[in-house]
Design brief:
It contains 4 helices and 13 strands. It is mainly beta and 183 residues long. The chain folds into 2 domains: 88 residues, Elongation Factor Tu (Ef-tu), domain 3, CATH 2.40.30; 68 residues, SH3 type barrels. The chain has a 6-stranded antiparallel beta barrel. The chain has a 6-stranded mixed β-sheet with strand order 11-10-9-8-13-12. Strand 3 and strand 4 form a beta hairpin.
Length: 183
């Protein structure tokens, strides 16, 4: 399994070890951890932006919740030191077919796109710096050219066009919204 950004999506980042038997905490980047992290699922591993030399792939042995934190145990190791050495490594997998539709986006697809108001021909206001997913609606984080960060509701009325080939999005915020939603 080779990690290729156009074919694989980031689903988690490995955090601190938990206990002495190789369990790790994970920061989730998936909406469906219960189906992603089942026994036997295999993930490609990237460390510092390239394939991990120590463990190019990891296989889930066990997944469980500890309060609101997901803990994973992998079949390839069972000690705290190895778990610690994988901290900040990222896990990648193929997109889930059920998740793919015309109006869905992964944060990695949006980050770095230039932001233009009303039309692609207008000068760039900045770039997308993140996506905050929420129960009611998602928010786009935008870093303006003057360095300010603003949050915009990620809805069709305010973000009517996304052109990945052009590397840009068009926004049509109501007057004052860019000034109001500074983070």
């Amino acid at each position: 399994m080779q990690v290729a950004s156009e074919y694989f999506v980031r689903v988690a980042r490995i955090g601190r070890p938990h206990g002495i038997r190789g369990e790790v905490t994970v920061e989730l980047f998936t909406d469906s951890p219960e189906t992603r992290f089942v026994k036997g699922n295999v993930f490609s591993v990237q460390t510092d932006g390239s394939a991990s030399k120590m463990f190019p792939e990891l296989t889930v042995e066990k997944a469980r919740w500890n309060k609101n934190i997901m803990l994973l145990k992998f079949a390839e190791f069972s000690d705290r030191n190895t778990a610690e050495s994988l901290r900040n490594s990222e896990l990648y997998a193929e997109p889930e077919e059920a998740d793919i539709d015309e109006d869905s986006w992964y944060a990695d697809d949006l980050i770095g796109l230039s932001v233009h108001e009303d039309d692609f021909e207008n000068p760039s206001l900045g770039e997308v710096s993140g996506l905050i997913t929420g129960e009611a609606q998602d928010l786009l984080e935008i870093r303006l050219t003057d360095g300010r960060e603003v949050l915009l509701p990620f809805v069709e009325e305010i973000v009517p066009e996304i052109d990945e080939e052009r590397g840009a999005i068009v926004i049509t915020p109501p007057p004052g919204l860019l000034e109001l939603n500074q983070s």
